[in-house]
Write a structure and sequence with these properties.
The complex is a heterotetramer of chains A (626), B (458), C (106) and D (480). Chain A is built from 26 helices and 2 strands. Chain A has 626 residues and is an all-alpha fold. Among the domains of chain A are: 262 residues, no CATH class; 72 residues, no CATH class. In chain A, strand 1 and strand 2 form a beta hairpin. Chain B has a two-stranded antiparallel ribbon. Chain B is globular, with a radius of gyration of 21 Å. Chain B has a domain of 192 residues. Chain B is 76% helix and 1% strand. With 480 residues, chain D is mostly helical. Chain D folds into 2 domains: 218 residues, no CATH class; 212 residues, no CATH class. Classes of the chains: A mainly alpha (626), B mainly alpha (458), C mainly alpha (106), D mainly alpha (480).
């Protein structure tokens, strides 16, 4: 029964994928979209069932299907594990997934390949479920690469545009760099523990099996590299902003709410391992903090509405990694959830705006949409407040927990994180002001067509905004349901902060910081009514920021270009060289042959002479040899 | 012994048949006669008999080689009427000369006395001089005949001198006596060995080994193609077999330096032959050089002569069968052509797939590609040389095998990838039949190598 | 006969015939006229014949002398064929200088 | 019934194909190759039932050579691969109008025969004969039915032939030497030969030359790209799908058990060489203008990894090599088939003339995409199973091998997706691209089905080959 239900949970989206890919075109857009949505909804329903069950029984559901891989010293089963962590993830994956499917029915309605869009989206949900449900690292890896594939397919959904295809390719390849790390990590773990099952490994660690700590740390580091790729951390983050080439629902689902949090999921999954590698934890914390700051700084000056959100996502992910690095897994998870709500809402809201403006994404050509798009605006506002970390919105609670943990561990990290938060507040409100306030700056044509989006679009927005509003309730400071719920999957007990003076002071500081950010944005974009300058006019540090610290250019210069140059070198020089060695041998023999022809000169006299010479030399040799 | 007499008699019969205007019957009768002598010959198999005061000794070695020669002669004679269809009057002469040539060849492997050997080699040579120069109006043929004759006569002189020295040292021409004398008395005069060396050199000339090979490409090219076929198949292996027999019976006290010389000559022959063959335009010249390299390969049997008689026979059979098949195709392609250059073969794969296929297979066999007998021949040879401990020469042989692919494939490529220059012709029955039978025998030997390999025993 | 041979010594016969043989070889190598080359070859053969006869006497064995007959017959046959070829060449080239026979090479 | 039955079907099929004439040749070839596949399955079934499927016959007395065909997990799995791919390859050529079709299909069948014989022979000499024999048909296929400028084709094909022949003939010498030592060519006897380390070194080297050229391992690969490019696609499929597996199979079957010492001693050099090939091939594939050449270099990279795995001398490495051989066989045939389909319609393999195909042909795009993904070893495809095990075996040897070798998953994704983008995506191509026909799609569907099925459930194959690999491993470790 449980097996069948679990399979239903897993395979429903896959069925949706199959139906859509094979029959989608014939079924028509509405049917195709509905089908796609329903299959995910089914998964959500099943998840809910399991969630309630596990929440009450506290016993994880384990499903083992068959033996998949056989190594010399370990076996990998095709098995699934529905425990607290995976169910939590499944809840928002399928839940938000369903909402975004609903949204997409309307959003993608004009696209000729809508059935494909839904197919890919279903496939994504399917792989995401595998990633989350797997009972060992390799099953997770299937999902891990699978979601990467879907991300590739969806970023490049409008495949006629080669720039989009480039972005898709970039995403896939950068993910693959991380994946290599992940794989190496799996190798080491498999070698150390003779298993890649979560339970086996955690039991082994809990019972104090003798393991080489050095290798263990390396394994943890490798896994973290994998997480970096998927969750867009320095140095592998540059694909995420580019990934905004995909349709907006994709950005919301994959590149904000679910897929990019896979790294956090993985590290939380393996928390027992990371606990043993404090050095790696430090690295994670530092990388997370720096990522959050750098991404936030870049986000300050971007003009593309989705790019801003993308950098904001990177920055928020950085904060989550910071929490992971500090060993506060439950806090990271908390932020993942709240972030999923408000960031999905923000992306969908921006999608709604883009939809209304027929594809316009540059904020300099927006403005004044507040009046036309009421629902979009309100939901957007709620989410913006949430991400900025203002109480009582959900973001406040999760972000504050992170800041507080950082404060207790390392003041420098806390300062960095706080700075990032202030910047977040600034650029989010900059975004809000530029988009919704003042007057419309686009063309007359666009102005004429401005409209609020249809209900299929606004409905998910409302739900998500509501969740963004109240999501913080699951882990209120002091009495956290989440910490309690997650306790069985975490090796160490949750970090518990006393609600003392320091705590309140920190909360206060965080709020003040957010208000400062908002204030600056307000003065600049409402009071002074500034509009961001054209690219050519940007100078100084702003230009560096605007150009994203030239990281892409640097990567191109130090990796891609040399690689191409090397390829060309290999192709034109070494291949020719290798080839000429072989041909050279042949040529040498042929030359010898040509030379030999002159000896064979046709003269009987010479032939006889050679004959006699041979005769004499043989006789002489025989005598000498004697 | 009766084989020898029968074949000589057959030759005379041919000449008489011409007198009685039985031209048409000549070739069939000869072939039947040869088949008859083959039977006669095979009847002697397994026995060691001697005739005429040991002038002729038949053993398994001689019977095996005689059979091979007879079969080759049948092929060559079968080709004669088609080749000379415009000079019907000549047929009887050509057939008779070939029969005499065969007689010489058989004498060369059945001799029990150096006099018989000398007669055999001279009968063979003189017949060949005639055949080489058999187109008196063709300057090329003249030149070939002249070159071959001059150098051949020179070589005969050397062989004769060698025989004289051997006679002087032992006091007998009888190989048995010489063998016995060597067994009893190791202290033979020094000139005995010079005699052996001079005999060796004369035979190296006949098998066209470097540096006594210069005549071969020129003579092969200039001679009428059928004669070239005879030279490169029958003559070459007859000389080789004779050489082998001489050395195994006479050369009991082989000093190391003799083996060194053989190995140097073998290496030179292989290498020079293969390298020179690479840049030849004339197919006949190319096959001449290829023949030189094969002579080099065959010389490797002398490293362990006690065991290699079977291998030599196998190699000789494989090489000659492939040679006959290729020359049949060359004859077919180059009839009425000015020369035998490679471009004449362009597009043969399209215009005449059967002949192209046969030539391809024969060339592959010569190159030593399984499962043609040429491969097995090389394998058995390498195997034996390897067991005798001469690894270095095997490596050289292998490198040469690789080089040889270059020119064999040049011809194959021409046949299959280049556009045809000539009209499609129908294949005369004899060419097709001879080539096909030779190829089938070749492949059969490849599939069942034991038969030929174990034919010779003591 | 025996005495003479013993007096003179078999070595001297060998030297003589070797000398003759070498003269023949040099003749073949040095001359370009085909007929003269034939004759040189004949000298070589005759040198051998001499040697054979000498050995025959030395060994008191008749077979050496019989062999000489063979070799003379063979030489005659050889020359017959050779001269025929020579005539053919002469008809085509109008001379018998072997240096004109260099068309086949390479 | 023994394994020789399959060989007989293939050989008879070759003859029959030749004699039924041009019109029916392709059908006859398809029929007989499918029959051979069925027979191979039946033989495998018998083998699994514990029945003997070996054939032993005396052939040559001195030197003692037996005709001995042995069916075990390893040889039967390769036999199945060969006989499964042959009908696919034949089917893939169906749409082409091939001049002299009967010779073409007969040569394909003959090649299948020779390759199957190579896999099955237990007698080193017979094995060598089949090994060489397989060279001849592909030579003619590439020479006669190849594409491109005739002169350069001739040059590269002859280079290929001489080069591979040169390598393999040294193997023959190694066999002759082994025969001197053991008096037999049978592999089980050769395994038992007690060779000194120095002897082993030379034997190993001789084998290595043969295999390194055929696989190919750099720097012996120069023949490959040109031949792949210039052969007709069926030829390329035979070469890359099956023929180069012969060499890797031979490493496991012959080279390592006979001369394990140098393999262990020079392990780092060998693996390093193979991995260098992985990187080199991958980087080269980045900048290729010709689709088939690109695939050739990608194949170079993939087989480099397989060979590296085999040289780790671990069970994982050997098994991974086997799994990946099968997986790669299917995927590379599929990819070259895709190239062929494009070539059929556009008459070129120049990547620059492609692009914008996806709009016109969604079905083909999806299938091509899946093959590309399988080629980059996406988990749940068969290739992932193999590649994972290979990389894991390398990680056991030295983690850096896995790291450096693992870059193939990055670079592989790089060049394959780049290729896919340039070939398929973008604005609609001016030239019309008809969507694939049922027959064409059918081939793809079979290949994809195999790749996905075994990707998720490789256990049957694993269970089938593991016992015999363990035996081989036992031989490899016999000196320790």
């Amino acid at each position: 029964m449980e097996t069948n239900l679990a399979l239903l949970l897993l395979l429903a989206p896959f069925a949706g994928f199959l139906l859509n890919i094979f029959f989608g075109k014939k079924l028509g857009k509405t049917v195709s979209g509905t089908l796609g949505t329903l299959t995910v909804a089914v998964s959500f329903a099943v998840t809910l069932f399991f969630f309630l069950q596990v929440n009450s029984t506290k016993v994880p559901v384990m499903v083992d299907l068959f033996e998949w891989l056989t190594m010399a010293n370990f076996k990998v089963n095709f098995g699934f594990q529905l425990d607290q962590l995976s169910l939590l993830w499944l809840m928002f994956v399928t839940g938000i997934g369903t909402l975004i499917h609903v949204y997409s029915i309307s959003y993608m309605h004009d696209d000729e390949n809508m059935h494909k869009f839904f197919a890919y989206l279903n496939l994504f949900v399917f792989f995401m479920i595998i990633l989350v449900m797997g009972s060992n690292l390799l099953i997770m890896f299937i999902g891990w690469e699978g979601v990467g594939l879907c991300s590739y397919l969806l970023i490049g959904f409008w495949y006629k545009n080669q720039d989009y295809n480039d972005a898709a390719k970039k995403a896939f390849i950068m993910n693959r760099i991380g994946d290599l790390g992940f794989l190496i990590g799996i190798f080491i773990i498999g070698y150390l523990f003779h298993s890649v099952d979560y339970n086996t490994i955690s039991t082994a660690i809990a019972t104090g099996a003798e393991v080489d700590m050095g290798w263990l740390s390396i394994a943890a580091l490798c896994l973290f590299i994998g997480a970096c790729g998927k969750s867009a951390q320095i140095p592998l983050y540059t694909w995420l902003p580019d990934a905004m080439a995909g349709p907006t629902p994709v950005s919301a689902l994959i590149h904000a709410a679910t897929m990019v949090t896979a790294g956090i999921f993985m590290i939380t999954r393996m928390n027992f391992l990371f606990n043993l590698a404090p050095d790696v934890q430090n690295i994670i914390a530092i990388v997370g903090a720096i990522t959050s700051l750098v991404a936030a700084a870049i986000g300050l000056v971007q003009n593309d509405i989705k790019k801003v959100l993308a950098y904001s996502t990177v920055s928020q992910l950085g904060l989550m990694f910071l929490a992971l690095g500090l060993g506060a897994y439950e806090i990271a998870v908390f932020h993942v959830i709240t972030h999923a709500f408000f960031k999905a809402c923000l992306f969908l809201g921006s999608g709604s705006v883009i939809h209304a403006l027929h594809g316009e994404q540059d904020m300099r050509n927006m403005g004044g949409l507040k009046k036309v798009m009421k629902i979009t605006f309100i939901t957007f506002l709620i989410s913006t407040l949430a991400i900025s970390g203002l109480p009582p919105f959900s973001g406040f609670f999760s972000k504050d927990e992170i800041l507080m943990t950082a404060f207790h561990h390392n003041k420098a990290l806390w300062i960095i994180a706080s700075l990032a938060s202030i910047m977040t507040a600034f650029y989010m409100f900059r975004l809000l002001y530029l988009t919704f306030y003042k007057s419309f700056r686009g063309t007359e044509e666009q102005k004429h067509h401005l409209h609020e989006s249809p209900s299929l679009i606004t409905f998910p927005l409302i739900i998500l905004a509501a969740l963004a509003l109240v999501g913080g309730l699951i882990s209120l400071p002091g009495s956290s349901w989440l910490n309690h719920y997650l306790a069985p999957v975490l090796a160490k007990p949750a970090v518990h902060h006393e609600l003392d003076g320091t705590a309140y002071m920190l909360m206060g500081l965080a709020v003040v910081g957010a208000l400062i950010g908002i204030g600056i944005a307000y003065t600049k974009y409402i009071k002074q009514a500034l509009v961001p300058a054209q690219e050519s006019e940007i100078t100084g540090f702003a230009k560096v920021l605007y150009n994203k610290f030239y990281v892409d250019e640097i990567y191109t210069a130090i990796i891609v270009k040399p690689l191409y140059a090397l390829a060309a070198f290999f192709r034109d020089v070494t291949e020719a060289l290798f080839s000429s060695v072989i041909f050279g041998l042949g040529k040498a023999v042929n030359m010898l042959s040509n030379e030999g022809k002159t000896i064979q000169n046709g003269s009987i006299g010479f032939y006889l002479f050679a004959f006699v010479l041979g005769l004499c030399s043989i006789i002489v040799y025989i005598f000498l040899a004697k | 012994m009766y084989t020898l007499v029968a074949i000589a008699g057959l030759g005379i019969l041919c000449l008489i048949a011409e007198i009685f205007n039985l031209r048409k019957a000549i070739v069939p009768i000869t072939i039947l006669g040869l088949l008859g002598s083959l039977v006669l010959n095979v009847a002697d198999y397994g026995k060691t008999l001697s005739y005429f005061n040991n002038m002729i000794i038949t053993d398994t070695f001689s019977v095996a080689f005689t059979s091979l020669f007879i079969i080759l002669a049948i092929f060559l004679i079968a080709l004669t009427p088609v080749v000379h269809k415009e000079h019907k009057a000549k047929i009887s002469d050509f057939v008779a000369i070939k029969l005499f040539l065969l007689t010489g060849a058989i004498a060369m492997v059945t001799f029990g006395n150096l006099a018989m050997f000398f007669l055999g080699i001279e009968i063979l040579s003189i017949s060949l001089y005639v055949l080489a120069a058999s187109e008196p109006k063709n300057l090329k043929s003249n030149e070939a005949g002249m070159k071959y004759f001059l150098m051949g006569a020179f070589a005969s002189g050397i062989i004769l001198f060698g025989i004289a020295l051997i006679y002087g040292a032992i006091g007998s021409f009888d190989t048995g006596v010489i063998y016995g004398a060597l067994l009893e008395n190791n202290n033979v005069p020094g000139w005995f060995f010079i005699g052996i060396v001079m005999l060796t050199i004369g035979l190296l000339f006949k098998i066209a080994a470097v540096p006594f090979h210069f005549w071969a490409p020129d003579v092969y090219e200039g001679s009428p193609t059928l004669t070239t076929a005879t030279m490169s198949t029958l003559t070459k292996v007859a000389a080789m077999a004779s050489f082998f027999k001489l050395m195994t019976t006479l050369n009991r006290t082989v000093p190391g330096s003799y083996i060194t010389i053989i190995s140097i000559v073998a290496i030179l022959s292989m290498t020079v032959g293969n390298i020179m063959a690479l840049r030849q335009n004339s197919v006949k010249r190319m096959l001449a050089y290829s023949g030189i390299s094969h002579a080099g390969f065959m010389l490797m049997v002398f490293f362990s002569p006690t065991f290699t008689a079977g291998t030599l026979f196998y190699y000789a059979a494989a090489y000659t069968l492939a040679g006959i098949a290729s020359f049949a195709v060359v004859l077919f392609v180059c009839t009425n052509k000015e020369n035998e250059d490679v471009y004449n073969f362009n597009g043969l794969g399209k215009t005449n797939p059967l002949m192209a296929g046969i030539l391809t297979c024969s060339l592959l066999s010569m190159a030593g590609i399984p499962i043609f007998s040429g491969f097995f021949a090389k394998f058995f040879l390498f195997h034996q040389v390897f067991s005798s401990g001469h690894v270095a020469i095997v490596i050289v042989a292998i490198i040469n095998s690789i080089i040889s692919l270059g020119y064999y494939f040049k011809l194959i490529i021409a046949m299959y990838t280049k556009e045809s220059t000539a009209e499609k012709q129908t294949v005369p029955f004899t060419y097709g039949a001879v080539a096909l039978i030779a190829l089938v025998l070749n492949i059969a030997m490849g599939l069942y190598p034991s038969f030929a390999l174990e034919l010779i025993f003591r | 006969m025996e005495n003479i041979l013993q007096q003179i010594g078999i070595e001297n016969y060998i030297y003589l015939s070797t000398l003759l043989f070498c003269i023949g070889i040099f003749g073949v190598l040095y001359r370009r006229n085909a007929i003269v080359m034939f004759m040189s070859v004949e000298i070589m053969l005759n040198a051998v014949n001499l040697l054979l006869v000498a050995f025959s006497t030395y060994h008191q064995d008749a077979s050496g002398q019989v062999f000489v007959f063979f070799s003379m017959a063979v030489a005659a046959a050889e020359v017959a064929v050779g001269l025929a070829i020579l005539v053919a060449v002469y008809r085509n080239l109008n001379n018998i200088d072997i240096d004109n026979l260099k068309n086949l090479k390479g | 019934m023994d394994v020789s039955f399959v060989l007989i079907i293939l050989l008879f099929g070759a003859a029959a194909t030749f004699f039924v004439g041009d019109k029916w040749a392709s059908k006859a070839a398809l029929f007989f190759s499918t029959a051979a596949f069925a027979a191979a399955i039946y033989v495998t079934y018998l083998f699994n039932q514990g029945m003997g499927v070996d054939l032993t016959m005396n052939w040559i007395k001195a030197p003692r050579i037996l005709i001995n065909f042995q069916g075990d997990g390893l040889s039967l799995s390769m036999l199945l691969l060969t006989t499964a791919l042959t009908p696919i390859i034949i089917l893939a050529s169906f749409k082409n109008s091939i001049p002299k079709a009967r010779s073409f299909y007969a040569l394909i069948m003959f090649m299948a025969f020779a390759m199957a014989g190579t896999f099955l022979s237990a007698d080193g000499f017979v094995y060598y004969i089949f090994w060489e024999l397989s060279l001849i048909p592909i030579y003619f296929i590439a020479l006669i039915w190849g594409s491109g400028d005739a002169e350069s084709r001739r040059k590269s094909v002859i280079k290929f032939f001489i080069y591979t022949f040169a390598g393999s003939i040294f193997m023959l010498i190694a066999f002759i030497y082994l025969y001197q030592r053991t008096g037999s060519f049978l592999n089980i006897h050769l395994y038992r030969a007690f060779l000194t380390p120095q002897e082993q070194f030379w034997i190993f080297l001789a084998f290595f030359l043969a295999y390194a050229i055929k696989i190919p391992i750099i720097p012996f690969h120069t023949w490959q790209a040109n031949v792949y490019q210039k052969s007709p696609t069926a030829g390329t499929m035979l070469l890359s799908g099956i023929m180069l597996k012969m060499a890797i199979y031979s490493i496991i079957r012959w080279q390592l058990p006979i001369a394990p010492n140098p393999a262990a001693e020079y392990m780092y050099v060998l693996i390093g060489l193979c991995i260098a090939g992985v990187i080199y091939g991958s980087i080269l594939a980045l900048k290729q203008d010709d689709l088939k050449k690109l695939l050739a270099y990608s194949s170079l990279a993939h087989v480099g990894l397989i060979a590296a795995g085999a040289y780790t001398l671990t069970l994982d490495g050997l098994r991974g090599a086997f799994l990946q051989m099968i997986a790669h066989g299917f995927v590379v045939v599929g990819l070259f088939y895709a190239a062929e389909i494009i070539q059929r319609r556009y008459n070129t393999t120049e990547i620059s003339q492609m692009g914008g195909i996806r709009i016109q042909t969604p079905k083909f795009t999806s299938m091509f995409m899946i093959l590309v993904l399988a080629s980059v070893a996406l988990p749940s495809t068969f290739n992932f199973v193999g590649e994972f095990e290979l990389l894991y075996s390398m990680a056991q040897t030295n983690i850096w091998f896995a790291v450096i070798g693992g870059t193939t998953i990055i670079l592989g994704a790089f060049y394959m997706l780049r290729m896919f983008q340039q070939v398929m995506l973008g604005e609609q191509n001016a030239k019309l691209f008809a969507d694939i026909t049922f027959g064409e799609g059918f081939v793809f569907v079979i290949i994809i089905a195999v790749l996905l099925f075994f990707g998720l459930y490789p256990k049957p194959i694993v269970d089938f080959i593991t016992p015999d690999l363990q035996k081989i491993l036992l031989q490899i470790n016999r000196f320790n």
